[in-house]
Amino acid sequence: MKTLFWDSLDENGQPYRFGDKRLRWGSPAYILEPGDPEYPYEDFPPHSQPKRKRTMTNQAYYPTRQADQIVWLENFRNKIAAYAATLGLTTEQVDALTAKCRWLIYILGSWLPAERAYNLACTQASKTAQTGAAGPFALPVFVPPALPAGVTVQDAGALTYIFDKIAEIKESDNCGEALCADLRIHGPVAGAPDYAILAPKLTLKISGNKVELGWGWEGYAKFLDQCELQVDRGTGWQILTFDTTPGYTDSTPFPATLTQWKYRGIYRVDDEQVGQWSAEVSIAIGG
Q1: How far is it, in rounded angstroms, from Cα 66 to Cα 244?
Q2: What pLDDT score was predicted for residue 220?
Q3: pTM for this structure?
């Protein structure tokens, strides 16, 4: 089982629906996972759960610093139209790329700094409200910067669209070294994990009468589908769950006598184990 919070999302990145038979409402609310008692296998077979949507991998040519990202977007926006004929891009495609670049430049260069300044103002306002000098007081109000001329709101995933289109551009026979260098799109896609050494890192802690099992994607969420978790309660290793969201709550009742439970995990892709088993972790419970 896994504890749910107000902003928890399902395996498809969507809010949970009230009709989901895996949900259990209470304080706290939680969702049943394969291996839990009462899990509705007939509606959610563990090996037929929807695959996690893989997003476009980070690109080596795209800067990591925000200021440099704005420079990169401006360069690409200003130059892509000149290569439209060479690359076989339509007017609609060039317009879409340009519009998304303009939108992201506004987000990174204007909206985000304003939002951060507003957050600082809110923090200061909370302090003033609590311990400030007596006198009139007003809460700060966020006013987003006006859209510059030529900038329009774009659908979510603007940068992913740009990356996808660049991937197509780089397949063109006319996309040579000089063109790539001018558009600053020269560089390999960030590599896949080395499965010879890839393994989950597990953590354990007791929370009330449950064991909280922590795990993550180790930076490779785009390449992986699930984490298979197993437990040994003294009778050998058994499958605990096939988890698609980091973190798992083991709600198995604690024994009356002091006992050691051991856990391990391994990643899965397309219903097959990949990489290596994690280091075994153990915790003393019961008694």
Answers
A1: 30
A2: 84
A3: 0.49
Homologous superfamily of 2-54+194-285 in CATH? Immunoglobulins (2.60.40.10)
Which neighbouring-strand residues pair with 237? 232
Give the E-state strand segments of the chain in sequence order. 2-3, 23-24, 30-31, 203-207, 210-214, 226-232, 237-243, 248-250, 259-269, 272-274, 281-285
Query: What's the chain's Rg over C-alpha atoms?
Result: 25
Distance CA 31, CA 106 (A): 39
Distance CA 59, CA 184 (A): 11
Cα separation of 195 and 51, whole Å?
Answer: 20
Question: What is the Cα–Cα distance from 276 to 38, expressed in whole angstroms?
Answer: 30
Alpha-carbon distance 169 to 59, whole Å? 14
pLDDT single digits (tens) 201-246:
999 999 999 999 999 998 888 788 899 999 999 999 999 999 988 9
pLDDT at position 29, please?
A: 73
DSSP state of 107: I
Distances in whole angstroms, Cα of residue 90 to Cα of each of 94, 168, 197, 200, 215: 6, 13, 44, 45, 45
Specify burial of residue 173 (Cβ count, 10 A radius: 0-12, 13-18, 19+): exposed
> Which residues are CB-neighbours of 253 under 8 A, at least 6 positions away?
209
Tokens representing 37 are 């008692």
Instruction: Count Cβ atoms below 10 Å from residue 89 Cβ, excluding itself.
Output: 20
Q: What is the mean pLDDT of residues 130-144?
A: 92
